[in-house]
Design a protein that fits this description.
The structure is a single chain. The chain has 23 helices and ten strands. A five-stranded mixed β-sheet has the order 7-6-8-5-9. The chain has a three-stranded antiparallel β-sheet with strand order 3-10-4. A two-stranded parallel sheet has the order 1-2. The protein is α/β, with parallel strands linked by helices. The chain has helices spanning 2-28, 41-54, 71-80, 90-97, 106-113, 136-142, 162-166, 171-178, 189-197, 212-215, 241-244, 246-253, 261-274, 278-291, 306-310, 315-344, 348-363, 366-377, 382-406, 410-418, 423-453, 466-475, 478-517; strands at 34-38, 63-69, 85-89, 118-121, 130-135, 158-161, 185-187, 203-207, 218-220, 233-238. The chain is 61% helix and 9% strand. The radius of gyration is 27 Å and the shape is elongated. It folds into three domains: 31-127 and 231-303, Periplasmic binding protein-like II (D-Maltodextrin-Binding Protein, domain 2); 130-220, 3-Layer(aba) Sandwich (D-Maltodextrin-Binding Protein, domain 2); 315-517, MetI-like fold, CATH 1.10.3720.10.
Amino acid sequence: MSLLHNAFFKLMGLLALCAASASHAATQDPGTLTVGSKRFTESYILAEVLSQTAKPTLQQPPKLTQGIGNTAIVYEALRSGSIDMYAEYSGTIAQEILKDPKATSIEAMNAALKPLGLGVAIALGFNDGYALAMRAADAERLGIRTLSDLAAHPQLKFGLSNEFIGRADGWRGMAERYALKAQPVGLDHGLAYDAIGAKQVDVIDIYTTDAKIDHLGLRVLQDNKAYFPRYDALVLHRLDLPQRLPQTWAALKALEGRIDEHAMIAMNARAELQGVAFDVIARDFLKSLTSGGSPAGGTETAARGFMAKLLGPDLARLTYQHLLLVLLSVGIAMVIAVPIAIAVAAQPRARAAALTFTSLMQTVPSLALLAILISLTGAIGTVPALMALTLYSLLPIMSNTVTGLAEVPDGLRNASTALGMTPTQSLRYVQLPLALPTLIAGVRTAMAIAIGTATIAAFVGAGGYGERIVTGLALNDRELLMAGALPAALLALLSEAFFELLQRWLRPTQTRAAALAQ
């Protein structure tokens, strides 16, 4: 049991130290800038606008970490120094980050954020508030125009984003204010538009700059009791950024008040309705600021076809990131699990404890585990993703190693002893070779689990094929979702073919081990 704890915690400590060192180095390098974003269309676009604005003032291009996650995760990334800034909203800062609904002015927010090493600045010029919406035809038929009107229609189905359900300024407070008794269903924000369009739900939460409100013929219900605060778009940043990169900060300050609601809705529409890439939208908008043209201008307005998305220029990068996560996590899991399995195989209590621990790891939801690891390591991206995938890979490898050793016939064990082999020699030349096919089957299972689970890593900025899936969810783009899912499925098939060939190649080794003991 002590061997299990020592090996596990030494590895986790080493990875956490690496994460802390990387984070520290990132915040100390005066010439770097890392821009983050949340996981919805507008945040992706604003991150590109900030990044492209900063780029001419930097010696090396800024790093863009898109789709990190919800407010809690992206804020943790900023606080820990994994990113330098991201676009946030005044209501979210006051309600979710500072837990102070009265801190609505920039001065009040800065006073509260300063002890945290953070600041807020650059009011971009638009308010993107929360609201509820329903199909206009249904709203007209039922006479619903305000949030208060919803209380008279308990039969309506609410499909709300999971973040909105849990927010301090979200569902619970609103339901209390307006006496709403519905039990909402949690949906991804992008998928909610599909659900209301297909009449699977009747009411959804929306951002007031969403492009699909008019496109789907939705009515935004009036917040007649003024429940929602303003959500003015701002830049939330690390406090040292203006002094560390003064020229960059001056360029970013030029964006103040330059994006109105009409421009933001137009940019969101290009992404969600026309399939234009985020970087192109940002580039065209910034050109419009200097040329006086339309923010929605530009020549690239047609949606890319499926093959263009599948074989896009990011395919090689995403494949490398995905493979790196999978191979490293399974490799580390083998280094931990195989020695522990060998050590506890003949000790029933220790074996049960080791297998119970690794089984418990499998029951922890992946996103919850990633959030915990981000908090523990103070980093986003590869390190917490790698740690999570390693933990998920331990069970199949350890379980199969123990099973393979247990299946070695006692007669062969005794025969190896009779031949004068030491226990170590018996393990090396007889037991492990005979258990190897079962062990390899465990590694095979771990690889399959890791390939699928690694797509979740994109939710914390670790890249891989999940990056396309996350973006596809934000845009409600089925083709982009498939462009991420298909390469992952192909990688899983190639992995299965590799292990099938490997097991065939290892059969002579097993035969030689059995003959040696006879």
